[in-house]
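Quick one, T. Sequence first:
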Amino acid sequence: KRHECIAEAFAELPTEDAAICVAAVEHLFHLSDEGKKLEKECEALFETWVVAEIAKAHLHRGQRPRLSFYRDSGGLEIDLVLERGTDLVLVEVKSAQTPSGRYFDAFERLTAAREGQDAPRIARRIVVYGGEESQVRSRGELLAWRDLDAFDWTG
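Structure tokens:
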């Protein structure tokens, strides 16, 4: 709704100028304290929804999901750790619509911290994000939010 109002405010400008104005206003909003707070709240809500959908995928198949998160004293955090037998599926959740290679950094930090440990094995690294296109990358899988229900979480 907010984006529609901003766009409407600049509707009489040429398209290119309007797009620049909308981007500038949104950027300033995100820099404000209110914008930062709203972004954190949206990120938390999106993360909660993703975890609930993954849990629901298990429960609908009569399986009890083995879900946890990871956080160490050095600030390393993984949003969701899904246990599958002796394998782990690591999941990061990002509400942003634009993919970034930085989304996979926590996976690599955890892999480095576990150097020399055989079990459990990290089987997959998945980033669920607010964008439209799922991709397989060298550092893991980027899963668009729309593909969340079609993904086989129960393995």
